[in-house]
Amino acid sequence: MLEILSLVAIGLALYTLNASRNSARKIGDEVMRLKREVEALKAGGVVLPAAEGTGEAASVDVAEAAREAAADEPAETPFAGPWAGPKPVTTDDVEKGRAIFGGVPAEAAAASDTAEEAVAAQSVAAPVKPKESFESRIGARWAVWVGGIALALGGIFMVKYSIEAGLLSPAVRLSLAAVFGLVLVAIGEFVRRRTQPLIANAFQNAMIPGVLTAAGAITLFAVTYVSYEFYGYVGPVAAFVLLAAVSFATIGLSLLHGQALAGLGLLASMLTPALVSTDEPSAWSLFGFLSVAWLATFAASRIRSWQVVPALANGGMALWALLYLAGAETVDVVPVLAALLVLVLGHGLIWPGAIAFDDTSAPAGATPADPFDKLLAPPAVAVSLTGALAVVFPALVLASRVPTITHADYGFVILVMALAVLGALRGWAIYPAIFSAIGAVVGVTTMVALPGGALIDTFGGLAPPTLEGTTPIPVLGTAPVNLLLVLAVAYAAVGLAAVRLRIAGSLHFAALWSLLAPAVPFAILAVSFLHFGNLSFDAKHGLLAVLLGLVFFAAAETFSRKRTEEGGLFIPQWTLASGGFAFLVLALHALTDGLVTTLGVAALGTAAVFATRVRAWPVLPWLMAGAAAVVVGRIAWEPTIVGAANLSKTPVFNQLLAGYGIPAALLALSAFELRRWPGERIRNLLQALASLFLLLTAAILVRHAMNGGVLDSSVPTLGEQATYTLLVIGASAIMMSLDLKSPSPVFRYGSMAVGVLSVLSIASAHFIGLNPYFTGELLGKWPFVDLLFVGYLLPGIAYGGLAWYARGRRPMPYVIMLALAGVALAFAWVTLSVRRYWHGEGIADWKGFLQPETYTYSVVWLLLGVALLVVGSKFDSKSIRLASAGLVLIAVVKVFLIDMANLEGILRALSFIGLGAVLIGIGLFYQKILSGKSGTSEKAELNVEA
To answer: Does the keyword Transmembrane apply (predicted)?
Structure first.
């Protein structure tokens, strides 16, 4: 069966070869006929349209043949040919036409016009590639592919048959197979030379010469491997050389036969080291061969502008590097490093070479593309992307194996910096730039997070601590702190150089580098400081951070001066200045500690605000907002600022006043300094932050004082919470006053937001969470000046005052909310005071209710309702009058539902008599008010805007 299949395959291949040659001859004849027709048209003769059935390829190449013929025409020839556009017809043209075509019948002239229109229509449609027919796919493409496979299988089956039959010796069989492979290569070259270029253009992925050459290359590769592996006719060195020669020859022939053959040669070269093994493997031999194979593939791809094959070559190089680093018993970093550096140099010097683009201008009349789309899709994007990944993945492996591989840290740094340099020097290298940054940050984090690296005392040289009964972790060397610092400095230098190189031609690429230049070194320096530095005082990291901060501020100044156009967002100024500020903040953390660090960060932000007097950079005020964010982060990490053990217990005048109050004052000063700044958002933000820090300062001082100088996580008491509530009410009133004096949306909406939050706070804390009735907290020995006075009456009066102050200045719903909050607190104070009168300091719910106590609630609630009615009438406030009606309604419900059931005797009677008298009095009061206002309009309510 196999023999029959072999014969069928060979027959099919011969038939395909013969058919393709006949087709090529027919197509060539048709092209020559079309050229003659074009020559006739140029000479002014009339040629009828081509007959039907001339073939698809002929119509496709009409325009190309016409252009070749037109190129031979002298420049002074007045006839432009049928491809020229129409021009206006003048009287002279008409007279000339009559003279020329005077003896020509009208039918001939019409035929000439028809012929010209037909040829012109064909020339217009020529660039549009027609849809390939099913016949073309079967006959011109699949037949070629199947034929090539058949030839390869035929050779294999012939060798197999000779082996099974024992007809020939192994040496003869291998020799014949080699000759067969060489013959296939020769036939492929012969067919390529005889085939017209038209076939190459129409069937690029089904070229018969390329298929024949590929079959021959596979045959030669198989013969060499079998000679080495199964029969031992050649040794490892000779087999390696022969396989490499076949691979490189295939890559060289791909320049003539196409990208598919290059891919085959690349695959063969990548498989060669895996197929040939020796007792003493050499990493230099392996990666030296891979480098040469990669260079050959890359050079061929550069000549023919291929992208698939070089991308696969990058992947193959990366795969070999990863396999070696992960699987070799003894790893030599230098050969891997050399091969990957060859890859980086090849990308920079061979492909795509000097390609760069300018995103500052667009051709006239063209629709400008999105610069970011252009930046992220550079020429040969697949090549640059795979090349960057091929370098960054081995670099990360080296970073993860720093404790176990010698010089792995140096290899990691060199690879990252090589990618960064490539990204800086080439305008298309967006992905090398991005992945160099990612690789640097991820690699450094991985390196310092390893147990062997993280447990090393860099400065003292101490051994890592161990637990009892455990084996200490072996340490193979010191942590590469100095190398990390060198990496940070080198990356910053390359980043700034990249901004300098790209700012004139590609503003968006320069903007990207202006972000990477400070961000990557900052991340490296911060990780190194947190893992290996002395958090109290570290001169090495601190001084380097100061140096880099000043360098980036100087770079921002330099690039801002060189900027020619005005207006718009100049990203390098923002990123470089922000990076310089971030380095100075890091330096403060390295050189100072505790309160000094917090105040230093706030002072640094204030200095940036005052620097607007010298340089009107939009970024400078926002640096103060960044400083405030850092201070908030430090407070969240350590609320005591200096540590619980070092915090003074003196009320008010302690480290908290400075740690919270001075940043609040500096924020307020910065907002005042920016009063004439054109950017309103940052001024409003600083005002809001100043208000927030002021409230935070007051709250933390209160908590410190009321807890005996100790800040802990315990739940605050009602007195403490009442103090916070009074502070918030006062803050709302202060912001309202500031808004009236200098209108600001921050103060306007901030005052209302603070008021709403305070109301929510009393609803949850004063009435439920910290209510002495539920918590059992003692009220104090003094009957009136007690916890109820601080927790309910004072906040109620404060809310009433705030509602009165907001009259006509804030929206009606907000004022109503404040007034009702004050009434609710007053109601709670009266009710709980009655319970204190009957039960003493402890008013917990478990004590139950007495009959006199129940009666007293009814009397007090009615009196409170009447008092609110009087107040509402005096201030003409409908909302307060409605609140009084609500209290009276509560008293009515209580009398009818509770007093009737729980009271007995005289108390029950007095309850109903008092209720009736109060209700009648209220009715008379309302009748008097309404009759007095008859025919007149009511005055403006307390809660109505002026």
So the answer is: yes
